[in-house]
Design goal:
Elements lengths: L4 H5 L24 E3 L10 E6 L5 E6 L6 E6 L10 H10 L1 H5 L3 E5 L8 H18 L5 E7 L1 H12 L12 E5 L6 H4 L1 H14 L24 H12 L10 H14 L6 H19 L19 H7 L7 H11 L9 E6 L9 H12 L5 E6 L11 H13 L7 H15 L22
Parallel strand pairs: 4-5, 4-6, 6-7, 7-8, 8-9
Antiparallel strand pairs: 1-2, 2-3, 3-5
Helix pairs in contact: 4-5, 7-10, 14-15
């Protein structure tokens, strides 16, 4: 990253009169953002601002030269476990520069803390929205965009913040992309399945000569295992750092067992195992009082060459009821979103299961807000980013719907995406008739 936080934060204290934006109407005690250099992916005629809010979260704002009047508030994925940095927000803007290219203002927070804290992240996003109103401009429309884990942040935040101090809706629409929207208390269960199956096969996380601990807490508090240490252990057992042809028959068998039973691609085994280690540690020791919200007592694993032996070999854990309640209260959307919600997800997403959207639809139905939801899907097997024309098509459809136009259909969005390829390049792969299966078809019920 060519821009250091110090350089960016001490950029000349330029007067915001040069911004050329409408006069904000909100008041705030937050300091005004500073002018900073935009990442190279952002159009050269755009303006960028950066700062740190009163809670300690860094943020970045980008204003296109020809602003269409809509602000996109971005909730990033992850979550990351380290301290917040300005670089984190700049990286988000780099990835989502298509938003600014399409004429939208963009604002993204690093969040005040690392770790799996959803409601706090939603508060940080809302604080940034108020900073934008006070110091940058008054948008005609505001879209709340959540990506990956940030989609859960946005879905929860859209229920938390439904009216501002003047009684107005802070968000006009919600866009959830590649989203973890089933809620943390349900969507992470398969990572415990991976931990126990990996341990049954490999027996090196932890090793027999190391202190033993319940795998559903990730790691004990204060454990010194590093991500590189874990990577070495995985490669010692599964040889994921080598082509399949160079693995032993036993290594090939173990990899196949994990792929077939946990239903994740080989390429994501190491990542999910790390998340089931370090994120579970964050959850248990920083969010739920040392207890784990994850259990597998009743889970029955299938797809191996000997399911009976596998189910007998895996370690079993009970989820702590109080931990489940605490974690669900923070991470699970309640569906009480009073504005239009549009989603997109790659069917083959290796990081967040597409089946979670069945859970989210049911959540909206139970809340009586199913009429606010349109779900779209693509044939992509990627997670972090689909393609440039997809996002302008979604934002255009959501913006029009939020202004009172008819509820869009997946077919209409797909058709508009195809039209936008002339401007933004190829990449439209919508599957307009796809319906996700229940999450239980992918992850064994507890």
């Amino acid at each position: 990253m060519p821009h250091s936080p110090l350089r960016l934060l001490v950029a000349a204290l330029l007067a915001l009169a040069a911004q050329g934006c409408a006069t904000p109407t909100a008041s705030t005690t937050e300091a005004a953002p500073q002018a900073i250099a935009c990442p190279k992916q952002v159009p050269a005629d755009a303006r960028c601002l950066g700062g740190r809010d009163s809670a300690g979260a860094f943020y970045v704002v980008a204003m296109p030269a020809q602003w269409n009047g809509t602000l996109v508030m971005h909730s990033h994925g992850g979550p990351f476990l380290g301290a917040p940095t300005l670089e984190r927000s700049l990286e988000d803007l780099e990835r989502w520069a298509i938003t600014v290219k399409a004429g939208y203002a963009w604002a993204g927070s690093s969040f005040r803390q690392g770790g799996v804290a959803v409601r706090a992240a939603a508060e940080d996003t809302e604080r940034l929205r108020r900073i934008f109103l006070a110091h940058v401009a008054t948008p005609r429309q505001t879209i709340l965009h959540g990506q990956s884990w940030g989609a859960g942040v946005a879905a929860v935040g859209a229920s938390m913040f439904t009216r501002d101090t003047q009684g107005r809706a802070p968000y006009d629409g919600v866009l959830l992309t590649s989203g973890l929207v089933a809620g943390g208390s349900r969507a992470y269960d398969f990572r415990l399945d991976l931990r126990v199956i990996y341990q049954a096969l490999c027996r090196n996380h932890p090793r027999a000569d190391e202190p033993q601990y319940p795998l559903n807490i990730g790691l004990p508090a204060g454990a010194t295992l590093s991500a590189e240490d874990l990577r070495r252990r995985v490669n010692d057992c599964l040889a994921l750092d080598r082509p399949a042809a160079q693995r032993t028959p036993e290594q090939q068998r173990k990899v196949k067992t994990i792929v077939d039973v946990v239903k994740i691609p080989e390429s994501s085994i190491a990542s999910h195992l790390a998340w089931g280690t370090f994120h579970f540690q964050d959850i248990a020791h920083k969010r739920t009082g040392g207890a784990s919200p994850f259990g597998n007592l009743k889970a029955r694993y299938s797809g191996s060459d000997d399911d009976a032996a596998l189910n007998a070999a895996v370690l079993r854990y009970a989820a702590d009821p109080a931990a489940v309640q605490t974690f669900a209260r923070d991470t699970d959307p309640d569906g009480r979103i009073p504005v239009p919600v549009l989603t997109v997800h790659g069917i083959g997403d290796p990081t967040v299961f597409v089946e979670g959207h069945d859970t989210f639809r049911r959540t909206m139905e139970q809340a009586g807000t199913a009429g606010h939801l349109v779900q779209t899907f693509t044939s992509d097997n990627t997670h972090s980013y689909l393609s440039d024309p997809v996002y302008p098509a979604l934002l255009e459809a959501l913006s029009a719907w939020a202004r009172g136009s008819a509820k869009p259909t997946p077919a209409q969005i797909a058709a508009r995406c195809t039209q936008l390829q002339a401007q933004f390049g190829p990449g439209c792969r919508f599957v307009t008739d796809y319906v996700p299966k229940p999450l239980a078809s992918r992850t064994p019920p507890r």
